[in-house]
Amino acid sequence: MAGALGAAWYRLPTKTPAVRDRGSCHAPPHGALPTGWMCQTGSHMDQQSKPDQIIEAYVDLLVVQGVRSASIDAIAKRSGLSKAGLLHHFRSRDAMDREILDRLEALVTADAAAMRIAPEGAARYYVGTSLEYSSPLERLVVAATRLGQAGNNEAWITLRWARDRWFEVLVDSLGDETLARLVLLAGDGIAYHTDIIGEESDPFLAEASITAVADLIGTLGKQPTD
Questions:
Q1: Of 66, 186, 187, 226, which is most buried with the most CB atoms under 10 A?
Q2: Nearest residue to 121 (alpha-carbon basis) of 172, 177, 192, 190
Q3: Which of 47, 32, 63, 27 is nearest to 137 (CA)?
């Protein structure tokens, strides 16, 4: 596990981000979504199991409105269940929190595996996917961050664990811890600036600009030995 959180930590939003592309639902580019994945389409909600509906509703409230608005009553209403129906599946708020963190761990594990086999390389993969704002993985990261900000220490532990998994893959790919940190922070910087512009168009994050950054980072890697 990583030590105490520093200022440059993985994707720590400072405000509630706008939710864009609410109809999108993306698996890791090179791997299938694990059990318990979530997406934002209304038709999909009808096909989900009740526990999945509850967790998706909870995550949506955390991402869009924050912890204070994510009461048991609000989660039940958003998931189309009664409060008793919700508590039949999750006996407490803590149980729902744990489910979010378990699902985050599963998606991070899948994403790290996808990074290792990405044909463009782990560094370019990491930076290139940093704009996937409404993906199930990014939504769970934001939801876990909200829980951490509300005092859930297990959320911070899980998020630090996630950061370390991505860092390990980058170190293995690049062969240099400093370069790996550079890539990690570059990707997180892109994610941060995506947060602060909301739904507005900003040439600073134009696709061509991010592609150029990703291409440059894609040239990093282990140097051939003589």
A1: 187
A2: 172
A3: 27
> Hey, what amino acid is at 9?
W
Q: What residue has token string 């790996």?
A: 180
Phi, psi angles (nearest 5°) of residue 81: -120, 165
On whether the 42-218 domain is CATH 1.10.357.10, my answer is yes
Alpha carbon separation from 71 to 51, 76, 180 (Å, rounded): 16, 9, 39
**What's the average model confidence in pLDDT over 24-51?**
50
| pLDDT of 214 above 60 | yes
For 44-97, what is each residue's pLDDT tens digit? Answer: 555 578 899 999 999 999 999 999 999 999 999 999 999 999 999 999 999 999
Cβ-based neighbours of 104, under 8 Å, separated by 6 or more:
137, 140, 141, 143, 144, 158, 159, 162
The position carrying tokens 């051939």 is 224
Q: Look at the block and give the residue holding tokens 């744990």.
A: 98
Indicate the domain borders of the chain: 42-218
What CA–CA distance (Å, rounded) separates 88 from 102? 19
Report whether 186 contacts 129 (CB < 8 A): no
Please report, for the chain, how many H helices and E strands are present, in that order: 10, 0
**Cβ atoms of residues 125 and 37 within 8 Å:** no
